[in-house]
Fold:
Amino acid sequence: MNITNEQKKAIDRAKELFGQEWKNEIAKAWRTGVYKWGLNSNEIAALQHLQNKIGHSGLEKIK
Structure:
């Protein structure tokens, strides 16, 4: 899967903030549009672009 450096950094930050639940937290944010504390606006934008690019099914493939 081809993701940008910014998207990778945002994913890494989510992993740091949310631990093992990082995919669940991103998926919930994608469903609701509400992101938890700790992510800055650039990280949120990168994750939103990632949603548009890969969707929920693509999120499951990221390690």
